[in-house]
Specification:
alpha+beta; set domain protein methyltransferase, domain 1; set domain protein methyltransferase, domain 2; 4-stranded mixed sheet; globular; protein-L-histidine N-tele-methyltransferase activity; SETD3; cytoplasm
Amino acid sequence: MGKKSRVKTQKSGTGATAAVSPKEMMNLISELLQKCSSAAPSPGKEWEEYVQIRALVEKIRKKQKGMSVSFEGTREDFFSELMTWGAECGASCDCFEISNFADEGYGLKAARDIKAEELFLWIPRKMLMTVESAKDSVLGPLYSQDRILQAMGNVTLALHLLCERSNPSSPWLPYIKTLPADYDTPLYFEEEEVRHLLATQAIQDVLSQYKNTARQYAYFYKVIQTHPNASKLPLKDAFTFDDYRWAVSSVMTRQNQIPTADGSRVTLALIPLWDMCNHTNGLITTGYNLEDDRCECVALKDYKEGEQIYIFYGTRSNAEFVIHNGFFFEDNAHDRVKIKLGVSKSERLYAMKAEVLARAGIPASSIFALHCSEPPISAQLLAFLRVFCMTEEELRDYLVGDHAINKIFTLGNTEFPVSWENEIKLWTFLETRAALLLKTYKTSSEEDRSMLEKPDLSLHSRIAIKLRLAEKEILERAVSCCRAKRLHFQKQLDEGAPLPLYEESDIALLENADAKLPIILRKLEEEDESVQEEMNLAQIKPDAACVDSSKTPVLNGQCKDLNATSANSLVCETLGGRKRSPVEAKAAQVKESNFVLV
């Protein structure tokens, strides 16, 4: 998992403790907690609040310098120990070795030829760090009393990781010693590097991530110092902001949902060895085998000896990769930008439009996405825009006209326009919206490309500018596509071209839907799951046909709902001839990478 962090050498020794009294530190922590717990700033004041919180954090970090636990040597020094430990625990370690892949950092290299769909890696449960193992550890007494830990598995896992790192006899030390000393998540960005993200769609999530992390740190610092059930925690003597930032980033970039031992629910886990795999485009090839109680991974494709072994992290945008994983993926087939659209309740035709949308299974207001692919919009967004731009007569036709119920199914199908005028109107509207979004950026695409050519640009600045440029390029392509569509339909109207008529015998199915289901039977997918106002990750969507509750696919650093799963969450996936059933939990407000206090 080298892309999630640069390879850094950890400092040796624990360093000299900074001269600061417990009372002085507690006063600073209290001030930070109060600042982070105050009411949300007014629009436009978020950056100012971020700067103020950051100043307090930097003051605390300065006084805590040298107090963090660290290991002698580099993470590379401990890879052989990790492999030995894995083999002793029953993991498969014969097909690969850990190697450095330059810009991608450390990853897994094939030690022999591996065929596509061949099972080459399995990790038994005893190696995993989970919320369940945290409950059985020294953290257990505090977990039983603290509602934040009980509600947020990610925070529990972060503190579990810190406690085990401080324990010389921890069974997970061979794994923990190989984790990066620091990361490239925005929590590690300098203020000027974060400034490059201003006006991007990622900035609000980045600022919230920092605020939430600072608030959680201040909260748990006070809990660890004052709660009776925290008296035996090794963190009581040394719990720095840098410690918590490291733990949060370790969990955020690596955690996954797996089933509990009895298969009744899901829990969060860190998966040693497997989490060294870097990302590429493809399909999910990892699952959890409850029968053998182990995580299993089959090869995404054929690998020759010496080639790097990749896995697919899921359909994440580059904003999600930057915020949660700390890297920008150049060839991201799933990149997209958010666009919030809704029918105004004050509009005269609101009730009619809302009813047509409801029959199509689409909310009257939602966050959709413009994609990097062609066309840039999904069938759901096309359906929404068609209804959004309908006249009263057209709305009435789709509500009470001939074959009204069946015609609802055609709303997301490009072959059945509502009218040429409707198509012209919707593409004009979307072209205007995309153009307006482009104007919110302070720099042009050309200026961004020039900045990226500077050899002295820091890695974090480069990541931020690449993300900013990628958003603009998606919007620019959208504007160009919308303009071409608008001109095409204007020509159809001018030439008096006949409008394709819907026939009842037609199979009116959605375009771009893998399962070819009518729109009313499908959920809003990416628009409703991966471009939420919260920092959501992509939903597990394997191609499926049956249920096998004994095996569950997982994604690197990804889960949907930290604390629960929906009743209909088991969906089958076939990997290498074996059936897997993913826990497809409905996106919740608390996500693994939000680290939001509840």
